[in-house]
Every structure is written in C-alpha cells, then in structure tokens.
C-alpha cells in the first residue's frame, strides 16, 4: 500500500512538473510576441526572423460543372542577404510595425485537377528592383477544362428534357506587367499585357460544327493596356 501511494504521489508530482513546464514555456513563447517598445502583442519580431521561405498552399475545387478535385501550389519567397538585413532592421525598429518593407521576390508553381478530367498547371514570378522602384509580375498557365452545358430553351423544356452537350476547352494563357514608381510616392505606373490561345470542341458533331463555324478551330486573344496602382501597404501580404 505504501509503494502504491508513493507511486501515485510520483505520478502527481510528474504531472505537476509537466504542467508547470508547459505553462512556463507558453508564457515565454507569448512573451516573445510582446513588442518591448509599446508592450503590445506583436508578431513583428517573429516575422522578421522567419519571414520568407517555402509555403505550400492547398487548392480545393467543388465546382459542380467540373466535379470535385484539388491540387497544390508551392510559393517560394526569395531575398538577398542585404534585403533580409534591411527588412529585419525596419521590422524591429518601427514603432507601429508599419515600416514599408521591400517586397520579396515570389515564385509560384502549382497544379490542380478534378474528377471529370479537367486539369490546370501554372507558374508565376514577381520581382522588384532599385528599392521597389521597378516591379515586374508575370505568369503562365496551361490546362484543359471539360464542362457540360444544359439549355432548357428559356424554360420551354422540362429540366430532365433539357438539351445537353459537353465541351472540351484546351488552352494556354499568360499575363505580365511592368511598373515604375513615380519619384518616392506610392503611385506606380506601367504596362500590362494579357494573352491566351484556346481551342474548344465537343463530342456532339452538330455542336462541334457550330463551334468551329462561330469560333474557329483556335482562338487567340491579346491585350495591352496602361496600369496605375496606388500602393500604401507596408508589406506584400
């Protein structure tokens, strides 16, 4: 009986020690998120030390026309040693953690697919130079989308008698933009270009012939325009 009591007492002390250790560690961890300048909760120091690297982003697709599916995108953030030291200095010395930081170079690569055979793959990159005086963003994607289309002729046909045909769209699309900062202001001016090349078809011979007649075998679209952006964010995210 004595041994059992001592064993129970040992378990009690062990649990108490474990609980005390956990509370101490939690308190220290929370204290590391307190800004010493104003005494407020602040993640600035943590972000300054652990800001950039690799971030996996899950993609969930629940679109009924495509079916359930998913994918993943990998976000890679890059910075030079000089940019890292500057960012840390600004984040740690800013009173309200509102220092405007030089945005990092970001590369994104990803892919996704659905149960009906639709899929998409894409890649993009964003970079800035001369203390964020020049910004470039570009991306490209390729994919195939299978979509069933229903037409009840404006309600004349019951839903179970609606005309149904499938479409299969294949294509590639890209976008890029180049911006220049106006003096030291938050105003960015630049050019933006979009481009796409797509091909649409259907298993239904009549619908496929109509699509070919109205849209052609392949469609190319391109656009070029001016871009103005007033950006006062203290960081990209």
Could you tell me the mean pLDDT? 79
End-to-end CA span = 62 Å
- Give the helix level as a range of percent: 25-40%
Helix/strand order: HHEEHEEEEEHE
Strand order of the largest sheet: 1-2-3-4-5-6-7-8
State the total count of DSSP E strands: 8
Largest β sheet strand count, sense and barrel closure: 8 strands, antiparallel
Number of helices: 4
Structural class, please?
A: alpha+beta
**Shape category:** elongated
Q: Domain count, please report it.
A: 1
Residue ranges: pLDDT <50 for 5 or more in a row? 1-5
Kindly estimate the percentage of residues that lie in beta strands according to DSSP: 35-45%
Rounded to the nearest angstrom, the radius of gyration is 28 Å
Please tell me about this protein's structure:
With 237 residues, the protein is an alpha+beta fold. It has one domain (55-230). It has four helices and eight strands, in the order ααββαβββββαβ. Strands 1-2-3-4-5-6-7-8 form an eight-stranded antiparallel beta sheet. The longest helix is centred in the N-terminal third of the chain and has 30 residues, at 2-31. It is elongated, with a radius of gyration of 28 Å. It comes from Agarivorans aestuarii.
């Amino acid at each position: 009986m004595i041994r059992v009591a001592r064993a129970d007492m040992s378990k009690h002390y062990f649990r108490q020690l474990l609980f005390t250790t956990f509370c101490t560690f939690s308190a220290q961890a929370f204290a590391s998120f307190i800004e010493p300048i104003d005494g407020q909760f602040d993640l600035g120091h943590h972000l300054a030390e652990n800001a950039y690297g690799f971030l996996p982003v899950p993609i969930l697709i629940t679109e009924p026309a495509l079916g359930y599916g998913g994918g993943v995108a990998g976000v890679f953030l890059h910075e030079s040693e000089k940019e890292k030291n500057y960012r840390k200095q600004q984040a740690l010395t800013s009173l309200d953690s509102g220092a405007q930081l030089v945005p990092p170079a970001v590369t994104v690569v990803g892919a996704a697919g659905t149960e009906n055979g639709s899929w998409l793959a894409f890649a993009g990159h964003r970079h800035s130079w001369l203390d964020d005086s020049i910004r470039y963003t570009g991306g490209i994607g390729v994919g195939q989308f299978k979509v069933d289309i229903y037409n009840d002729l404006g309600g004349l046909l019951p839903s179970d008698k609606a005309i149904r045909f499938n479409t299969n769209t294949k294509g590639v699309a890209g976008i890029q933009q180049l911006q220049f900062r106006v003096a030291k202001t938050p105003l960015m001016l630049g050019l933006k270009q979009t481009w796409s090349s797509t091909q649409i078809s259907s298993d239904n011979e009549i619908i496929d012939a109509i699509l070919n007649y109205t849209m052609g075998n392949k469609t190319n679209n391109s656009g070029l325009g001016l871009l103005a952006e007033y950006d006062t964010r203290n960081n990209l995210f």
